[in-house]
Amino acid sequence: MKIIHVYPYYNRLGGVEKYLLDTLPFQSNSGKSIELIGGQFDPDVRAMYTCRPVPFFKSPAILAIMSFVIAAEFKIFRLGERRASGMIIHSQGASSLCPDVVTAHSCHKAWFFKSLRKERPFSKAWIKKILNPIHYWTILVESIQYRRSGRTHVVAISGGIKSELQRYFGLPESRITVIHSGVDCDKYHPSKRTTFRSTIRKQYGLRDEDVVLVFVANEFRRKGLGPLLNGLQLCANPDLKLLVVGRDSTRDFEKLADELSLRSQIIFVGSTPHVDQYYAASDIFVFPTQYEPFGLVATEAMAAGLPLIISELAGAAELMNDGIDCIKLRDPKDPVEIASALKRLESKEVRDSMGLKARESALKHSWLEVVKKLDDVYSLV
C-alpha cells in the first residue's frame, strides 16, 4: 500500500505538522510506502521519505494557501489513477480538493462563525474577519472535501470536530471516524526534570521554590492568555511565575502584564523546538483556550507528568478526568475560575498526585495506536 500525504509544511513548528511527522515513522515501520507532497521539507524529512515538492507562493497568506492546493492537485493528477495503482491520497485539513482520506484537525466553518459571533458587529475586528478571503477559501475547500455525494473518508481528531462536521456539512456517520491524536511518551517524560528543570529555571532567573506555570500556543488570544494573566493577578501570589511559549505577537500581552503589575512574573520565551524542556522546568500546564479542536500540547504536558488546568472546549479534554488528572474550566474566559483552579494546585502533594495520573492517562494514547486505527480507515476507501 502506498500512502501519499499532502500538506504544505513538513516541520515541527505547529500542531498539524507535529501530528503528521509523529505518525509517519509508524506507517513506514508497518511496511507501507510513504510519499510526501508538500512545499517545504525539513532536511531530516527529505532524508527519510520520498518527497515530491510543489512550487507555491510563500506570501501573502491567501495566495500561499490557494497556490499550494492548486499545485498539489496538479501533482496528484500527474501521479496517475490512484485506485488502479493502489495509492491512497491522505490530506491534512484543507490541503487537497479530492483526497481519499482527510484528517480534520478543525472545522474551519464552525470556528469562523463562532469567532464572528464573539466580535461586536461592524467593529474593526469583525470587519477584518469578514473581509479576510482565507476564511472563504478554506470553507470552499472543506465544502468540496465534505460534499455529501463524495467518497472521502474523514478522520476527526475529536468528538467535537465530528459533531461540527455533521452539523455544518451534513456528513453521514459512516464517513467519519474519530481518532484522537497520540503522544510520544518517551520524548515527553517526567524523567527530563532531572536534566532540564534547574537549567531552564536558572536561564530565566526562576527559583526552586517558584511554582512555574507553562502556557504553550501559537495564537495567544484564542488560546486564552488574556484571561490567564487576569487569573494570575487575582491569585496575588508573587511565587507564581508563567512561561509563555510559542510564536505570536507579545505586545498587547506585555502591556496587559504591565497594567496588572505582573511583568516580573511573566516570561515570554518565544518559539522553541525544545518545548519538552519547558514542561520539565514547570509545575502546572495551563490551557484556557476558547476553541481548540484537540491540542497536542495538552497531551504532551500529560505525558511529561504535569497537572493540567484545561478548557472543556479543548478536544484533548475528552481524554481527561476532571479532578483526577486535570482541572477542567467550564468558562475559560473567566479569570475567577482560573484563579480558583490555580489555588487548588497550591499544594505540591496535590500537583504530584494529579501529574502522576496525567502521565498514566497519556500512556494509553500512543502514536502506534493512532496508526493502527488509520489502517482500519484505509481499508474502507
Structural class: alpha/beta
Strand order of the largest sheet: 5-3-1-6-7-8-9
Form type: globular
Return residue spans where pLDDT drops below 50 for at least 5 consecutive residues.
none
Helix content: 40-55%
Structure description:
This protein is an alpha/beta fold. The protein has two domains: 2-182 and 366-378, Glycogen Phosphorylase B (Rossmann fold), CATH 3.40.50; 192-362, Rossmann fold. Helices cover 44% and strands 17% of the residues. The chain is built from 16 helices and 15 strands. It has helices spanning 15-29, 43-48, 61-78, 82-85, 108-118, 124-131, 133-145, 159-169, 192-203, 225-235, 251-259, 275-280, 296-303, 335-344, 348-362, 367-378, and strands at residues 2-6, 9-10, 33-38, 40-41, 50-53, 87-92, 101-104, 153-156, 176-178, 211-216, 240-245, 266-270, 284-287, 308-311, 326-329. The strands form three sheets. A seven-stranded parallel beta sheet has the order 5-3-1-6-7-8-9, with helices on both faces. Strands 12-11-10-13-14-15 form a six-stranded parallel beta sheet, sandwiched between helices. Strand 10 (211-216), helix 10 (225-235) and strand 11 form a beta-alpha-beta unit. Helix 10 (225-235) packs across helix 14 and helix 13 crosses helix 15 (348-362). The radius of gyration is 21 Å and the shape is globular. It starts with a strand and ends with a helix. The model has no long low-confidence stretch (mean pLDDT 94).
